[in-house]
Specification:
971 residues; alpha+beta; five-stranded antiparallel β-sheet; four-stranded antiparallel β-sheet; 44 helices; DUF4132 domain-containing protein
């Protein structure tokens, strides 16, 4: 029997295959069924002895260990007439094997792949030229594997001369710009994206993508280098404590001085109020600390980029100006001996390090080149001092210090003209850009115009003042520089100091390709093509960004990713379960297409494709991921029921990142575990719900006993009238005066009495996610509505009630009617039904309600202050519980406060409640939390690790959580 090998090859006559076995002699295969599909084998003469086969199998083991199982498919010479191979069933194609083998063997070992023409054909196809081969040899010899990988993948869409350009590409610092995946997977994605593009322009797009990914990796490398210049241990808490004690000592010194240097009594201290000179000194220290921290930060960046001598020379004017400002600091107070002793180690204020650096630079024997460690040691705390200064500014602008307003305004009006003459403005934020004063500057300066307007008008006040807060922006920009950014950006939520020094990536459109790797960017673009992007628009698309923008514009991504999946009950019961034998990997089930989009964007696969979404929406499969303990997805799974369904489930597809083969042991254990999941008992489900199980037809579906085609069910004609009547009744019952008013306010109806509710709903349906969130924020901020009003409005689902009252026989006959209550795109027949004038208002209200919930969920995770104010002003149990579950599951990057300790199920407050009470408010909140966007499968895992948590701003007022919960319970 001749063995079938991978990539359509059949073993030659007289050849046998040996399979490695751990700790035993290799096994000679009698047939293909004796080994797993795609297994690595050693091919050799059928009459070879055990010693020869053993040596070849040992060499095969070395090859697989160093290059992965894919390398075995390249036909590598194992010695003694043996070559490596893979059995039929392996993923990918020949180029995957050749690239993997070459990375292991290098240019010197390439001869083990056989004739040069042979493996070059495997890489680039039969049209490969000598020049392409020479370019490939140079790339291999120089270790430019990313260029080789991309060229092999792009050989399907590029010509020989274009491939030479790709093979000449270099990555910054030797970074792996491909970052995972097989060439064949990248090739398939490139074909989807670039085949509609004219041939000459394909190379232009690929080179642009390479440049973008290179820039991203260069930025990451610089950011890592900048942050590595800072101390390994975070000392921010220590500095905050020291600075607090420093200020306390000064305050107590003023108090003792006023009382005649004696120790005050508690009553005297309580009655005492600091005078102006204390407040002005405190404000002067805050300003100078911000300027000193800015000087340290900018010097740290310059030294990291240019070395100690040049970096210090570039920042010398700023450092010296800072020391002069510190020398003139008003209301200075001498340190007592006790405070000097307590302040040993890191100084409480950054100006001390600035003085030391300038003193070393300008001393009797200026030393710039010699004591590099001296400078680096002091600059290593620039980040912590900058963070502390930002916290102090935030505290001032939040009015935590309770500075008397007259003193604050007097300080804010002081001129900074001399300071700017010495240090100038940064390149990213000059006075001409200060056209709109921050809200906090308006508070400090009163009704004064922004700085840019004053400078343009001229006059006595045509100068920068402290209250303009440009120095605060300088501090935040300097912090941003140390994190690799050009400047700080506006914060997403209100609050001092209004700038974010290390902004994360903006929320991208779902499936918008990232630029952290070529493979991921191309995979994301291929996803967009699958969602309807098709041919890139216009003839002038010359950059990858323009191509992606065109695909995003044409593909109805947002609509395609709405709605919930019909999750089979046996799979839903295991959501969040740890799979035995997988090292703690946790099974997570996708409940919406948006979850699939997140997985696809990270994994670089097609799990968010329309075919998968359609099957999962109809409940014909379960789509899942296995999360490792590091929080990253290890594999994606498609689970489908066996036939009949009562038999259980099996894994239809399983793939690691970029559609790579999963670890063999992991795959085996997952398949075994899935085999134990119980099946779906339709008969039992029908009995439990009181429904009769329809009899099994004796003729094929669509055929009558006489052989004539049965009449096709007509959705509009048969179900439309009854559903329309029920929908109108459900609408009238539920859309009372209060929700009608809330809808009109949210839709910004100028005359609610004259505008129909359906027109208002249509206006809201046309809003994108960001615009709808902004509309919610605006009505909450103006107090036109409370969060409780929005929650009530978003929970009105008249079409669900109408479907519940529909004849069960019609529901059974038209099983797709349930899709009307979700947010997923509707098939054609349902779209026509949803446009029926009797059904349309009820359908639109349900759809807008789901989108409202998602918008509220995003605002809460962003820590939006308008939501916080509304929630705490008029709390209600249903939204409070659902939002708390949402925050606990998602663990957003805002400050959180514990409500209950880790592992606890009893929630403090009156009335009493428990998380595990199936009849309590917390269980009732889970559906609402899922509509907010929560992955409730993570709830118990989060509770066990961190406890029940809420945004800290919710419980910052008096009484904390118990008071908030008690007020909610009274409604």
């Amino acid at each position: 029997m001749r063995l079938r090998l991978a990539y359509g090859v059949v073993a030659e006559p007289g050849t046998a295959a040996w399979l490695p076995r751990p700790r035993t002699e290799p096994v000679r295969l009698a047939g293909e069924g004796d080994a797993p599909p795609g297994a690595a084998v050693a091919l050799g003469p059928a009459g070879a002895g055990g010693a020869e086969a053993g040596a070849a199998v040992a060499e095969l083991g070395v090859l697989v260990r160093d290059g992965g199982i894919a390398a075995a498919g390249a036909g590598v010479d194992l010695g003694g007439g043996f070559r490596s191979a893979r059995l039929a069933g392996a993923r990918g194609d020949q180029r995957d094997a050749v690239v993997a083998a070459l990375r292991t063997l290098g240019v010197d070992g390439a001869g083990r792949l056989g004739e040069r023409t042979g493996f070059l054909t495997g890489l680039f196809g039969p049209a490969v030229t000598r020049r392409v081969g020479a370019a490939a040899a140079r790339a291999i010899g120089e270790g430019r594997w990313a260029a080789l990988h991309l060229a092999a993948a792009a050989s399907d869409v590029l010509g020989p001369e274009q491939l030479e350009r790709v093979l000449a590409l270099e990555a910054p610092g030797g970074a792996d710009l491909i970052a995972g995946g097989r060439p064949s997977v990248l090739a398939a994605d490139l074909r989807r994206v670039l085949e509609p593009v004219p041939g000459p322009r394909r190379l232009e797009l690929l080179l642009d993508l390479w440049e973008r990914v290179s820039e991203h990796h260069a930025w990451l490398a610089r950011r890592e280098r900048l942050l590595a210049s800072q101390g390994r241990r975070d000392r921010l808490d220590d500095l905050r404590d020291r600075r607090g004690r420093y200020e306390d000592d000064i305050l107590l010194s003023y108090l003792r001085a006023q009382l005649g240097a004696r120790e005050p009594t508690l009553a005297e201290a309580a009655r005492w109020q600091p005078e102006m000179h204390y407040w002005m000194g405190m404000l002067a220290r805050l300003l100078n600390d911000a300027r000193a921290a800015t000087a340290l930060l900018r010097t740290a960046v310059a030294v990291s980029d240019h070395g100690v001598p040049e970096g210090l020379a570039r920042r010398a004017p700023l450092l010296r100006a800072t020391v002069r400002a510190l020398d003139r600091e008003e209301y200075r107070f001498p340190l007592s001996r006790e405070r000097k002793k307590r302040a040993a180690g890191l100084p409480a204020r950054p100006g001390a390090y600035v003085r030391e650096i300038v003193g070393k630079m300008d001393g009797p024997k200026p030393e710039v080149d010699g004591p590099a460690p001296y400078y680096r040691q002091r600059l290593a705390r620039a980040l912590n001092y900058g963070q502390l200064a930002a916290k102090m500014v935030e505290s001032l602008l939040d009015d935590d210090h309770r500075v008397p307003e007259d003193y604050l305004r007097h300080w804010a009006s002081r001129s900074l003209r001399e300071w700017r003459e010495n240090v100038g403005y940064s390149a990213v934020r000059g006075p001409a850009d200060w056209t709109e004063a921050p809200r906090f500057a308006e508070y400090l300066l009163g009704t004064r115009e922004p700085l840019a307007e004053r400078l343009e008008r001229g006059g006595d006040d045509a100068q920068e003042e402290v209250g303009d807060l440009v120095w605060c922006a300088d501090l935040m920009d300097a912090l941003a520089n140390l994190h690799g950014h050009d400047a700080a950006t506006m914060r997403r939520q209100d609050g001092p100091p209004w700038l974010d020094p290390d902004p994360g990536p903006e929320d991208p459109a779902p499936l918008a390709p990232a630029y952290d790797s070529v493979a991921r960017a191309v995979s994301g673009a291929a996803q967009l093509v699958a969602f309807g992007g098709g041919r890139p628009p216009g003839k002038g698309v010359r950059t990858w960004e323009a191509l992606v923008a065109g695909l995003l514009a044409e593909a109805e991504i947002d609509e395609a990713l709405r709605g919930e999946f019909a999750v089979p009950a046996p799979l839903a019961a295991l959501d969040g379960t740890v799979v035995p034998g997988t090292g703690g990997a946790r099974f997570r089930l996708a409940r919406s297409a948006r979850t699939l989009a997140e997985w696809a964007n990270y994994m670089g696969n097609c799990i968010a494709g329309p075919d998968y979404v359609e099957k999962a929406t109809a409940g014909r499969c379960g789509l899942a991921a296995l999360y490792g303990e590091d929080g990253h997805v290890r594999v994606n799974l498609e689970l489908v029921p066996l036939r009949p369904e009562l038999r259980g489930w099996h894994v239809s597809e399983m793939a690691a990142r970029f559609n790579d083969d999963p670890d063999e042991d992991l795959a085996r254990r997952v398949r075994e575990w899935v085999g134990t999941i119980p099946g779906v008992d339709r008969a039992a489900n029908g009995a439990a719900t009181g429904e009769e199980t329809p009899p099994t037809p004796l003729t094929p579906p669509g055929r009558s006993g006489s052989g004539r085609r049965a009449p096709r069910p007509r959705l509009l004609q048969d179900a439309g009238p009854a559903l329309g009547e029920l929908a109108v009744k459900a609408w009238d019952d539920r859309m009372t005066a209060e929700p009608s008013h809330a809808l009109a306010v949210l839709a910004s109806a100028e005359d609610p009495a004259s505008e129909e509710a359906f027109a208002q709903l249509t206006r809201l349906r046309r809003l994108g996610p960001a615009s709808l969130a902004a509309a919610c924020r605006n009505v909450l901020d103006r107090r036109d509505l409370d969060l409780a009003d929005l929650w009530t409005l978003s929970g009105i689902r008249p079409l669900e009630a109408a479907l519940g009252g529909l004849d069960p026989a019609l529901r059974e006959r038209f099983g797709q009617l349930g899709l009307l209550t979700g947010a997923a795109p509707l098939p054609g027949s349902l779209r026509r039904l949803a446009r029926d004038p009797r059904v349309a208002p009820a359908y639109s209200l349900g759809l807008v309600g789901l989108r409202l919930r998602a918008a509220i969920g995003r605002l809460v995770l962003d820590g939006d202050p308008a939501v916080t104010r509304s929630l705490t002003r008029r709390p209600a149990v249903p939204p409070l519980c659902a939002l708390t579950v949402h925050v606990t599951c998602e663990a957003p990057a805002i400050e959180l406060a514990p409500v209950a300790p880790p592992g606890a199920v009893t929630v403090p407050g009156f009335p009493a409640s428990a998380l595990d009470d199936e009849d309590g408010p917390w269980h009732a909140a889970f559906p609402g939390a899922r509509e907010l966007g929560a992955d409730t499968g993570e709830f118990w895992n989060r509770v066990s690790r961190h406890g029940l948590r809420v945004p800290a701003a919710w419980v910052a007022g008096g009484g904390g959580w118990p008071a908030l919960w008690s007020r909610a319970g009274r409604r």
